[in-house]
Automatic annotation (TrEMBL):
Classification via InterPro entries: FmdEsu_dom (IPR003814), tRNA_methyltr_O (IPR053194), Znf-Tbcl_FmdE (IPR057035)
Source organism: Syntrophorhabdus aromaticivorans
The FmdE-like treble clef zinc finger domain, residue ranges: 155-185
Domain Formylmethanofuran dehydrogenase subunit E: 18-142
Name of protein: tRNA CCA-pyrophosphorylase
Length: 186
């Protein structure tokens, strides 16, 4: 079994190193990314959209050149376990999602996705075994067209020095930097 040119075991080790654990969402995400890549033409430059903040963005960043840092990955928190890869120039692409109608044969995956069991009640080994067995069988793919404004890079604009803290910040944020207006620190 291969996931984007890695054996399943290699991919699990990559996940553990990057994510900190063999999280089910990143494991399933590997199958999702692999499926999406196979459904887009070779040689195109593509962007990614992830519809959840949890785990799935890590699979995209591990297996594609799309990252939050380079702006090729947009996380749009729609609350769905789905991702899209699409051509940067035509906005044509594919969306891959966990198909809930296909989960009946996979009770551990279903319990994990729908939070039917608490974390302490879940068996990571059972979930991992089911994910390995299920592979892409729990996924569906659809052709999509992404709205052009989604893929546009957002420029920071001009940069200035905050008069309160002395750090560089985008002047479009206002007279002082966002941290000086509403710091996350005490």
């Amino acid at each position: 079994m291969q996931i984007a040119k890695h054996t399943f075991e290699e991919y699990l080790q990559i996940i553990k190193t990057f994510h900190g654990s063999e999280a089910p969402g990143v494991v399933i995400g590997g199958f999702m990314v692999d499926m999406a890549i196979r459904h887009i033409p070779d040689g195109i430059l593509y962007n990614a959209i992830c519809e959840t903040r949890s785990c799935l963005p890590d699979a995209i960043q591990l297996l594609t050149p799309c990252t939050i840092g380079n702006g090729w990955l947009k996380v749009i928190p729609l609350g769905r376990f789905a991702l899209t890869l699409y051509d940067k120039y035509t906005n044509e692409g594919v969306r891959v999602f966990v198909d809930t109608e296909k989960l009946e044969a996979w009770p551990e995956i279903k319990a994990w996705l729908f939070k039917l069991k608490t974390k302490s009640e879940q068996s990571p080994e059972s979930i991992a075994r089911e994910i390995a067995e299920a592979g892409e069988s729990i996924l569906s793919v659809q052709r999509i067209h992404v709205r052009p404004e989604i893929g546009k890079k957002i420029s920071k604009g001009k940069i200035g020095v905050c008069p309160q803290c002395g750090e560089a910040y985008p002047l479009s944020d206002g007279k002082v930097c966002l941290a000086c207006r509403e710091s996350p620190y005490i």
